[in-house]
Amino acid sequence: MKLENNLDTDHIRELVWKLAFPSMLAQFVSVLYSIVDRMYIGNIPQIGAPALAAVGVCGPVVTLITSFASWVGIGGAPLMSIRLGQKNEKAAEKVVANCFVLLSVMSVVLMAVIYLFKDRLLMAFGASEAIFPYADEYLSWYLSGTAFALLATGMNQFIICQGFAKTGMKSVLLGAVSNIVLDPVFIFVFDMGVKGAAIATVLSQLASCAYVLAFLFGKKPLVRITFGGYDKRLMARVLTLGLSPFLITASDSGLIIIMNMVIRHYGAGETGDVLLTCNTIVQSFMLMVTMPLGGITGGTQTILGYNYGAGRADRIRRAQKHIVALGIVFTAIMFVIAMTVSGYFAEIFTRDSAYVDMSVRAIRISTLGIIPLAIQYEVVDGFTGMGAAGLAISQSMFRKTLYLLSMLALPAFLGVENVFFAEPVSDVIASAAAIAVYMVFSGKVLKDGRRI
């Protein structure tokens, strides 16, 4: 078998770049799923603004679904990498088999539960009477593709962690390009509106899912999807290790929901709907920061996990320096973009100058602390990649708690329009805390080497 990248012998800097860039690009392109939907929806004649706000209300539910894929995929992939580092291919194969079953069962249960309670969820998440019909239509159709979304995203991690970063990127590109092509066809040509956007997304996820499964059932990867060898203890280990990325993504979803509720509470009547629409634009921009950043730190986890299993602390330290450097360069570029050309980004969703001005201000505020955020992401994903789930979870939840408290306090004292300052406050403080935790605990984690 010929690997795209050799985790044993490749130069660390070259290895980091080869894994980080495809993963970053894949995550950046995956953001187009939501941005393209929102761009076309925001420009639907007559109903663009309320329909865009409706998709924003659905956004946390969509993110919550994705978080289950991260729970299993990112929870199982480091374990597989560690077993490969220990040259135990049979154990690595067992990890993949158990994760495939977990994702399959989760997708069915999740679709049924969310569909059963979707009306109550949407109303609780901030959907007004004007917004609810569009939100209900979009979410109802989106849920039909739950299995495709979970399997495509979750199982793709096992492609990347075997050194096939370009193949993992292609699976995401396939879905994103399909969505870009299908969206205008279903929304405008077939005149299906919001429903058309959801159907286009489901079909795109189906394409990604088929590509991922075809590869993992094929002959090229060292570790393929097999059946049997199911182990409750192994599943529990996967879910424990994946709890950090799950909580990060799920809490992001919960925080957006709370943000919408805060805006609805303090922004009376039409003001609340306007702010909800602007928040949808802001969250779309923030996805362009956090998803690719997570691609850099998450896509390189396999280097850390493999060398952790092999007892190579020297390669781990060198890799982390390069990963942090890449993250800082990326976030610095996005900071400059936010401060200079975010108006053009807002205008792809709406041409209303009031919406654009409010969105630009909110984007600039929200991105004030994104440069140090690169360090926080690497500390959390680095500990996850080496199996130190407790440290990863504590750091991720510390940042989310700060964000929640700031989000609740700022509107009460400074007005609802200042709720966006919650992001930089939490980013800066959490990044400083992550540095301190890494300096104290990283040495002990690296010494544990082969014990996992």
Automatic annotation (TrEMBL):
Its main location: membrane. The keyword Zinc-finger does not apply. It is a multi-pass membrane protein. The lineage of its organism: Bacteria, Bacillati, Bacillota, Clostridia, Lachnospirales. The chain crosses the membrane at residues 15-35, 47-74, 95-118, 138-160, 172-190, 196-217, 238-263, 283-304, 324-346, 358-380, 401-422, 428-446. This is Multidrug export protein MepA. Keywords: Antibiotic resistance, Cell membrane, Membrane, Transmembrane, Transmembrane helix, Transport. Pfam families: MatE. Belongs to the multi antimicrobial extrusion (MATE) (TC 2.A.66.1) family. MepA subfamily. NCBIfam families: matE (TIGR00797). It is found in: Cell membrane. The keyword Ribosomal protein does not apply.
